[in-house]
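call fold(seq) -> tokens
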Amino acid sequence: MVAAVGAMLRAAERHLIILIDGFIMTACALAAIRLCPAAQDYMIFTHCGDESGHRLMLQAIGARPLLHLGLRLGEGTGALCAFPIVDSAVRMVCEMNNFDNARITKYF
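ret:
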């Protein structure tokens, strides 16, 4: 867990987005955020697990997870389920055309 907290802090230092999945990684994220509050800006909380403690930690952080699937698997399945949503959002921001680029001057 200490290594995970360190990795989260290093990711934030390098401006890398990370997906936080499950109870244990949320506990690590909570520790990382307490050490460096700005680290939260680089965390995407993928799901809220079925453990009551997980919900409490997410509330303490003020995090709003992408999914609520009631998972308790601990194998990163929430992150795997959420990744296509994150990928789609990134693609939309980076690849979606806009009115100027599409040479649309008037719309209804």
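The chain has a mean pLDDT of 89.
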